[in-house]
Amino acid sequence: MAPREPILTLVPIAELRPTQITVGFREVEEKRRRWREHDPDKKDKFLGSHTIPTLLGPKKRHYVIDHHHLSRALQLEGVESIQVTVVADLHKLDKDAFWTVCDHKAWSHPYDAAGTRQTFKDIPKGIVDLVDDPFRSLAGELRRAGGFAKDTTPFSEFLWADFLRRHMKAKRVEGDFSEALEEALRLAKSPDAGYLPGWCGPVEG
């Protein structure tokens, strides 16, 4: 039996619902920069190959479960709609049941910019309302710099962000990002980070 092709739907970004509270604004800006550098003739192809996975939730609204940063970046760049693929149809559930399923399936991350868990009602209603977490930006840059490996663990970069938040002051991240990244690279190789997804182990001396 052939695998079923995903059904793609074009949805206005303004109608997408987040399943998390924060993103890293610095990471959003990086994705905006890359978008602007794309050959204008290839932007449609890029959009066609970067579908947003969603859940069909109550009132048949689309809830984003990955690529929040990309969605926000494209929105800021004036892209009005994007292709989504529905991972699960939960539109018949009431709101409480819907969020319970999201919680158990690791499809939601209701943590604020201080790393503190909030209620599902605190999750923004729109991509435009996502809040900045500088440590999420630092974790994303840390992975790109080889500090840890990409991992399939849900919200793995948020776990790294929380680790960094516990070992560094926010003022340092906001004041000198390059210096903060150097410190993050050192922390990432320490045994203290050994429990985290994608940990690459200490540097052999």
From TrEMBL:
Domain of life (superkingdom): Bacteria
Pfam family, one: ParBc_2
InterPro entries assigned: ParB/Sulfiredoxin_sf, ParBc_2, UCP029669
Name recorded for this polypeptide: Chromosome partitioning protein ParB
